[in-house]
Known about the structure:
Two copies of one chain form a homodimer.
Chain A: H1 11-19, E1 29-31, E2 38-40, E3 44-52, H2 64-81, E4 85-95, H3 103-116, E5 120-128, E6 134-142, E7 157-161, H4 166-175, H5 182-189, H6 195-203, E8 209-212, H7 217-228, E9 231-235, H8 250-259, E10 266-270, H9 277-284, E11 288-295, E12 299-303, E13 310-311
Parallel strand pairs in A: 4-5, 9-12
Antiparallel strand pairs in A: 1-2, 2-3, 3-6, 4-6, 7-10, 7-11, 8-10, 9-11, 12-13
Amino acid sequence: MGRTVRLGRGGEFDLIRRLAEEGSLPPEVMIGPGDDGAVLAGGWVVSTDLSIEGVHFERAWITNEEVGFRAAAAAVSDLAAMAADPVGLLVSCAAAPNGEVDVEAVQTGIRALAQSVGACVIGGDLSRSPGPLILDVVAIGRADWPVQRDGAEPGDHVWVTGRLGGAAAAVRAWTSGAAPSATARAAFARPSPRVAEARCLVEQEAVDAMIDLSDGLAGDAAHIAAASGVSITLEATRLPIGEGLEGLGRDVALDLALHGGEDYELCFVTDPGAVDADGFRARFGVEVTRVGTVGEGEGVWLVDDEGPARRLERGGFDHWAVEGTT
Amino acid sequence: MGRTVRLGRGGEFDLIRRLAEEGSLPPEVMIGPGDDGAVLAGGWVVSTDLSIEGVHFERAWITNEEVGFRAAAAAVSDLAAMAADPVGLLVSCAAAPNGEVDVEAVQTGIRALAQSVGACVIGGDLSRSPGPLILDVVAIGRADWPVQRDGAEPGDHVWVTGRLGGAAAAVRAWTSGAAPSATARAAFARPSPRVAEARCLVEQEAVDAMIDLSDGLAGDAAHIAAASGVSITLEATRLPIGEGLEGLGRDVALDLALHGGEDYELCFVTDPGAVDADGFRARFGVEVTRVGTVGEGEGVWLVDDEGPARRLERGGFDHWAVEGTT
Lengths: 326, 326
């Protein structure tokens, strides 16, 4: 029988809960709603990810090719989170008929991302849009051992790949009329889904739970905590803040790293001592950083220097446009 | 090795061609871009279908529940076209944050359609929209013998299920400020993907090629013709025009049946004598009508009474809004 996974709080997750009918999954569905992707018999993993102009990006910020690249990266990142090997993408695309959007450039970006992870485009749908450029990328992969969100246990360590908050810092710059740093811009425009990194971690049997960072570390760690029935305590001083973010001031940098979202890095949970951070960095050229600890209880907490731990809360559903980019 | 299928003419299909990279499909992909769905190892069939307010529907026309129902029906119809059994749907949904759209009602409609074909919702993505209600439904099913578009041979007969042009007649009424007939409205709002009908036909080994009617019989038959390297000649007097369409005049009715689109019926090709139309109707309560013949050559042709056969041409890409419903 398939099973479903408990989600963290927030409007999006309430809706997804209601959309799914718990307990009624057909036998060919091994994992249903609530994880990064659905898992089907034969180890097929399927996930879908919307990228909408005015919500997830503005066309003034990045090139059409980058729009396609990052939409595909976001979808493939869900496969990475389950340690799946990408196989194919289906791309639904709607563009206004005024010719403003170079749809072929968007496709070029999608293909470039697909090739970078050994996948290809195997289908899709194209339509006119009444306004915004709309992409929905379906990522399909295979996993021998799909990693879920529900295996974290008290005493485990919490890790993240890469650095956090760069994409959010870029959005912050654009929405205030400034140009982002090259590093922040690249974090937004050309995220690297951590496919090979995830597979390596899982082959070492190091990972108890994993998720990709799309909503921000605080919100995504909350999904692991809720699914696993544990609490997660993050340590502010350990967070790998994106390069150059310190210039924004510590509070802003911390906020972007915790809540900014769209990092498309991995957050994963292991037994203590299971990760060789130096070896990981040498192999992939990507940092891996221990950011916290799993405990009894519930929720995601932040400890910072000497103050008491404070609970981090957030909702779901909205993206950048909350900040006024409509 | 996977293979791709030749598509009929039209902008959408040119773009899909370029999006796909012919000949480079991984071995786990049995059928790639160009058919109703991609087919993966293990018989999994995956298809994706956009439904966008202002392009595919207006919210003033139908209820939110019907918006969800028909979006899911359109996606599942692609599975029917390959004789696949629906298993699960992934639903990407973006709605404006002003609360105008009852997203739960949309979900109720999606669930109702899913249940009607033995499937359930296994995942998705929810987002804010900057304006239009946007749905992308990914339909996943399984087929032991997926039917493609490329098996038509000269001498074969061409059939369709149900009646044609009803959904287009409803749109025609709405866009001219009138109310559609109840039959036409139902054809638009609550299409029935022909899942059981397709499976039955394939179990009888009757079907050489099949497609679902989303773009209109003329355009969809052109895909079969192009994929199979044949011509198809339709007979105007045989077309099963939707109930009540005769009142619009014969030319209009014929145009809606050939080019209106969004019928979500099946068009299939068989050896002569392979279909028991009376038995089909008795079993499913749905008509099945022979509408034409496969020949040598290329393209889709229409013969009407005594005039010469004329070639039917159409593009792709756009939907209702071409008629001015933006």
